[in-house]
Amino acid sequence: MADSCSISRTPISPQVLEKLVYDALVWCSLHGLVVGHKTNQRSGRVPGVGIVHAPFALLPSSFPRTHFVQACELTPIFNELIDRVSLDGNFLQQALSRTKKVDAFTSRLLDIHSKMLEIGKKEEIRLGLHRSDYMLDAQTNALLQVELNTISSSFAGLSCLVSELHRHLLSHYGEYLKLDSSRVPENESASQFADALAKAWKEYNDSRAVIVVVVQGEERNMYDQHWLCFRLKEKYGVMTIRKTLTEIEAEGRLQPDGTLLINEQSVAVIYFRAGYTPNDYPSESEWKARLLMEQSTAIKCPSISYHLAGTKKIQQELAKPNVLERQVIAVFLILLLLELFLLVILKFLDDKNDVAKLRKCFAGLWSLDDLKTMKDAIEQPELFVLKPQREGGGSSSTIDLQSNMIVTFVVIVVVLIITSYYSSKDFTRVVSLSGNNIYGDEVKQTLQKLQKDGSEELAAYILMQRIFPASSPAYMVQDGILHEDHAISELGIYGTYLRNKEKVIMNEQCGYLTRTKVSSSNEGGVVAGFGVLDSVYLI
Q1: Could you tell me if 317 and 441 lie in one domain?
Q2: Which residues bind substrate (predicted)?
Q3: Is 517 annotated as a binding residue?
């Protein structure tokens, strides 16, 4: 299998490396490939203060063209799956019921979701900005999904700049490096995310309304977000405002028709770049803000259902045999002149070929109710990753998935509704207080402790097959300093999905993100300092 990291086997002289790094740093500074520096306390609050280039790979990582195309082709299927699963409220509630008992954060999200079900709240217009992450397993040469992000899919604003940077460098140094800049694929992630947000704003049909970007109080990755807002304003004339959950609770209110007003300004779309971690809800005020937004008619990206659909437990549930193909059966008893029984069958996915494509990329996922897998993980912990359930738990050589779907059948005249049934025997949503994935001997120690403490705590985690991608020498630049090390890469494919009732307005793959990290590191967060932004060189 081709290496999934550095592409250049041509030795690069120290003089050329120094010039490459210098030119790259100038390009980053001129084109906004920047983040706030962690040493400046104001860099996460005040734009333009404490700016430093985003960590980046000096050269793009090689990636097989066939696997890149495979990942792109999966995106519309995953988009549709997320939407369908999000509509199955019973599935989400039942699949996450055990997690709710041991994870307060998941419990609060489910409470909000339950309230929306009770009042019959429907999201007629649904917007998803997703990213599905993959790694190439060196042993099997298989493209395996690490996770699917349905909330705050970051770096759409910066990843396209990295692709531009690499094409720029290869166009000037390609002859020396023996590399072709055209092999770095076009990346329009920022433009296409902005397009999706603008189209959702248009569907809301209020020219005076704004898009609210829900942000954290301290956000060193603000420029990734600002790129989307800039494009919305420049191309579409759509105004955005940035608000924390705390500010929304203080400044927001609902009108009788469900319109959300923030400082008396109507809101068309709510774009979450926060709200995926317990740290974003330090008090009841933030939970009130989340509930207020869910109750509104504003388009949520994501809605509470889409958010829950992206949890690791749902990923594990969907990976079970026959779940993607599962049939939701309801019997309608329609009392007219005659008694008529109508059998209605719905599925998460209708196309058997689509199901096969998704299953091909699923890594092994297990609930901790699976005693055999638990035993295997204790005996061979190096082959597994123990994952906390909640979003933002850290990157790894494995991650998560998705989805949901509501089925409510109304019977004419006197209606007898037999709700869709589905039973979920197990559940796992990693609830590590540290928020990090667990590797190696710590997997064994944690599992043994969980077994000793009792079965309820097991519902806070899932086990995932550890993916072992090939490593290669790579050049990585952080804080203006070049580091050479063996590294591995993870490919993320962005997807946009917009639906208004029965009309699908968008269902597209829209750009990509590559993150590269030192192969000895278990975590891969770029802003956290574990990895660098990268692009792909198709081979």
Answers
A1: no
A2: 131, 225, 515
A3: yes
CATH, residue 376: 3.30.1490.50
Q: What is the largest CA-CA distance in the chain?
A: 89
> Which residues are 333's β-sheet partners?
341
* Residue 97 is assigned to a ligand binding site: no
Q: Of the given ranges (217-226, 392-401, 450-459, 504-513), which has the lowest mean pLDDT?
A: 392-401
State whether 296 and 436 are in the same domain. no
Residue-wise pLDDT tens digits, 208-234: 999 999 999 999 999 999 999 999 999
pTM here is 0.86
393 among annotated binding-site residues: yes
Residue 236: other Cβ atoms inside 10 A? 16
395 labelled ligand-binding: yes
Check whether 436 is labelled as a binding-site residue. Answer: yes
**Catalytically annotated residues:** 131, 147, 149, 154, 312, 387, 391-392, 515
Q: Is 131 within any annotated ligand binding site?
A: yes
Say if residue 404 carries a ligand binding annotation. yes
Question: Total domain count for the chain?
Answer: 2
In a domain, 416, yes or no: no
Give mean pLDDT, residues 484-497. 96
In a domain, 421, yes or no: no
Identify whether residues 191 and 83 lie together within a single domain. yes
Specify the pLDDT at position 167: 98
Question: Locate tokens 């333009």: which residue?
Answer: 48
Q: Does residue 412 register a pLDDT over 50?
A: no
Identify whether 37 is part of a domain.
yes
Give me the percent of the chain exceeding a pLDDT of 70.
Answer: 83
* Average pLDDT for the chain: 86
Distance CA(471)–CA(455), nearest Å, equals 38
Q: How far apart are CA 272 and CA 454, in angstroms?
A: 35
Question: What's the N-to-C CA distance of the chain in angstroms?
Answer: 11
Residues 99 and 240 in one domain: yes
pLDDT tens-digit profile of 171-198? 999 889 999 999 999 999 999 999 999 9
Q: Residue for token digits 């509104």?
A: 296
Burial track 209-220 (b if 16+ CB lie within 10 A, e otherwise): bbbbbbbbeebb
Report the interhelical angle of 441-453 vs 371-379 (nearest 10°).
140
Contacts of 40 (CB under 8 A, 6+ apart): 49, 50
Q: Is residue 5 situated within a structural domain?
A: no
The answer to whether the CB of 204 falls within 8 A of the CB of 299 is yes
Reduce the secondary structure of 320-376 to three states and give it as a string. CCCCCCCEEEEEEEEECCCEEEEEEEEECCCCHHHHHHHHHHCCCEEECCCHHHHHH
Task: Give the chain's count of helices (H) and strands (E).
Answer: 15, 22
Q: Which domain holds residue 66?
A: 14-326+348-363+467-538
Claim to verify: residue 440 and residue 513 sit in the same structural domain:
no
Residues 382 and 280 grouped into a single domain: no
What does the block give as tokens for 178?
A: 């023996």
Q: What is the pLDDT of residue 420?
A: 34
H or E stretch at 200: helix 189-204
